[in-house]
Each structure stands twice: as structure tokens, then as C-alpha cells.
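Notes from the 1:1 (GR / supervisor)

We went over the backlog. Supervisor wanted to see one worked example end to end before approving the batch request, so GR pasted a single chain during the call. The sequence is below; no edits were made to it. Supervisor asked that the structure be written out right there so they could see what the output format looks like.
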Amino acid sequence: MDEMRSPSDAVALTPRLLASGGFDLLYREGMGLIEEVAAYLDGEGRGESKALGRDGAFIYATESMRLTTRLMQLASWLLLQRAVNEGEISPVQARSEKSKVKFSALPSDRGGPGWDEIPDTMKAYIAKGDRLFERVVKFDRIERGEELPAEPEGENALSAQMDRLKAAFGGL
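Structure output shown during the call:
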């Protein structure tokens, strides 16, 4: 079976994803993380950053800008998808708007001088932001028909695995 689907097929996939609650969970987690990070950077994080050495302060400033940029891009995507889900805009309009949202602050390797000085709370928010980014990119690829959703767990998944084994081993 072809692993890729056309964009018109993607529209048919979206209702299944919505019915599973996958997007609602992603939306709540994403918006919650944005609020948490904003509160941290305006409060505790500001104080922690002042206690860092030169290298640590540079890395902290760089990573906080990357994280903030990434989260704002994700918020834009989440809000557009929610508008589609609630019938406020069409999928075509959303695709047009989403094409303007470039995920430019991609997660990258971290480390180097000063990385060890970064507060654990900030490191945890960076890691959460990276995981959220990966989930949104996966959901976006599924919505655009570039990737198939994961097979459901349970009996259907077991049945699908058994069918694959039978096909591979000649129906044993």
C-alpha cells in the first residue's frame, strides 16, 4: 500500500484524529506550555538568568529566544488548526495561512560552553518545547497527507500485525 496520501485524502484523516481527542490534547498541552514558559521567563527565569556567568547568560538568552520563537510558531499553527476544527475557516484557508508559518527555530543540538550553567527548569522547558514541536510537525504531516497516523492499539493493531506476518510468511 502506498505510504503517502494526497491532500484530499488528508481531509478524510482529520476527522478520525479529531474524534480520538488527539488534537484537543495537543492543543491544551501546547497552550499550557506557552503560558508556563511565559510565566517562568518573566519571573523565576529572569532571576536565575542574572546569576549566570557570561557563557551561561549567552546560552540562556539564545535558548530563551529560540524557545519563545518556536512556541509562538506552534501557537499560530495550533490556533489555525483549532479554527478549522471548529468550522471558523476552511482547510484550504488554513493551509494557506500555515504555509506562512515557517518552523524556523528548529530544535538543534545543545551544549557548549555555558550549557551546564543553564537552570534545570529552563532545560526542562526546552525539552518540552522540542517534544511539542515534534508532535505538531507529525500532526501537520498527517493532516497534509504526507504521513499516515499511527495504527490504533488493541485488537485492530494486532489484527494488522497478524495480516503482515501472514503476508510475509505465506499465510502460516
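Supervisor's comment: The CA atoms of residues 83 and 89 lie 6 Å apart.
Batch request approved.
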